[in-house]
């Protein structure tokens, strides 16, 4: 058996990486995604086919996937496919299902209230098993088999975990979305996090900031930004950070929680051209309810609120349960 793991880069790939580790291994594993710093580093030790990027809600890009899906199916003898989306799933799963491949689509954990456009379209395609990561909308058409947030719990860090030295380390991440800049968050944070800014004055410490800005243009000399970071490098920075500020994207949140951090989440707004819809609002509310994140508008973030999160952390005890695929 050859299992194809298929996802676009960013949060979809982060989720698939988490879930794939919980799916029992049965034969060869092949990963199909787009090439960038995240995917190259995350999948460095695995068998990968890098394919052209599928833009958001772009039907021609989806159709152009089909010849590649055919080539990969024949070359690798694909017998099972698992995808967390987004648009790339539309280009592969229906074709593979038509060839008798056992297909599974796991909706993004960011979809708290119902399926995405990709999920709604795939719900009309026969022979594709579909999964939600939220029990509140599972039904006969959408099975619940688990969530990437399984087992994460809010904890109070010990005093030994709190920063006492002269340096305060901060990670700011706006994710890897290619189409949607988040200028509002960056502009709000510059006066707080820049050298001699509000946080430095509030704490009397030197503030070191890693700015991962994606496609968001940055022209402020106070910011030494990096558009994209390799996955392992970002994970290392998150583990050593005292404070994490990120957009409410599933992948960025998952990275912060895996590092044991209680992030401050800033929600993207579709009306400002920051996202295709407002699903981040629902995800942020869900995480706040679980007690594993704090949600603030970019304009509401202050040094005092940042420091308040030092009394909060996240822990994932034990091994998450297996993600059981339907037969």
CATH fold field value of the largest domain: Rossmann fold
The helix/strand order is EHEHEHHEHEHEEEEHHEEHEHEHEHE
Give the rounded overall mean pLDDT.
Answer: 93
Structural class: alpha/beta
Output the number of helix runs.
12
Could you say which overall geometry the principal axes of the C-alpha atoms support?
A: globular
Radius of gyration: 20 Å
Number of strands: 15
Keywords: Transferase
GO molecular function, one term: transferase activity
Protein name: UDP-N-acetylglucosamine transferase subunit ALG13
InterPro entries: Glyco_trans_28_C
What do these coordinates show?
The chain is of the alpha/beta class and 327 residues long. The chain folds into 2 domains: 2-144, Glycogen Phosphorylase B (Rossmann fold), CATH 3.40.50.2000; 154-315, Glycogen Phosphorylase B (Rossmann fold). The protein is built from 12 helices and 15 strands. It has helices at 11-20, 37-42, 59-63, 65-76, 87-98, 117-122, 183-193, 198-203, 231-240, 250-258, 279-290, 303-308; strands spanning 2-7, 28-33, 48-50, 80-85, 102-106, 128-132, 143-144, 153-155, 167-173, 206-212, 225-226, 243-247, 264-266, 294-295, 313-315. The protein has a 7-stranded parallel β-sheet with strand order 3-2-1-4-5-6-7. It has a 6-stranded parallel β-sheet with strand order 11-10-9-12-13-14. Helix 1 (11-20) crosses helix 10 (250-258) and helix 4 crosses helix 5. The chain is globular and about 65 Å long. The chain starts with a strand and ends in a 12-residue tail after the last strand. The relative contact order is 0.15. The model has no long low-confidence stretch (mean pLDDT 93).
């Amino acid at each position: 058996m050859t299992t194809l793991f298929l996802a676009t880069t960013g949060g979809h790939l982060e989720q698939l990486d988490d879930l794939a580790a919980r799916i029992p291994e049965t034969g060869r594993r092949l990963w199909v995604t787009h090439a960038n710093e995240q995917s190259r580093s995350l999948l460095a030790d695995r068998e990968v086919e890098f394919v052209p990027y599928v833009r958001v809600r772009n039907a021609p890009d989806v159709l152009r996937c089909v010849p590649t899906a055919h080539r990969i199916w024949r070359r690798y003898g694909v017998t099972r496919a698992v995808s967390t989306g987004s648009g790339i799933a539309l280009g592969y799963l229906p074709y593979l299902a038509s060839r008798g491949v056992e297909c599974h689509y796991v909706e993004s954990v960011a979809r708290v209230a119902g399926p995405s456009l990709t999920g709604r379209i795939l719900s009309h395609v026969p022979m594709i098993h579909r999964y939600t990561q939220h029990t509140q909308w599972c039904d006969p058409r959408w099975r619940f088999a688990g969530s990437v947030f399984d087992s994460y719990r809010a904890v109070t860090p010990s005093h030994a975990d709190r920063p006492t030295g002269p340096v305060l380390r901060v990670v700011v991440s706006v994710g890897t979305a290619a189409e949607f800049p988040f200028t509002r968050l960056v502009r709000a944070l510059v006066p707080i996090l820049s050298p001699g800014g509000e946080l430095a004055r509030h704490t009397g410490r030197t503030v070191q900031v890693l700015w991962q800005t994606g496609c968001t243009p940055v022209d402020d000399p106070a910011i030494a930004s990096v558009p994209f970071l390799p996955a392992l490098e970002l994970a290392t920075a998150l583990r050593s950070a005292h404070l994490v500020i990120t957009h409410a994207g599933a992948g960025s949140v998952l990275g912060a929680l895996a590092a044991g951090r209680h992030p401050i989440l800033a929600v993207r707004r579709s009306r400002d051209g920051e996202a295709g819809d407002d699903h981040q609002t629902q995800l942020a509310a869900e995480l706040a309810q679980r007690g594993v994140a704090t949600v603030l508008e970019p304009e509401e973030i202050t040094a005092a609120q940042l420091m308040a999160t030092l009394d909060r952390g996240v822990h994932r005890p034990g091994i998450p349960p297996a993600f059981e695929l339907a037969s």
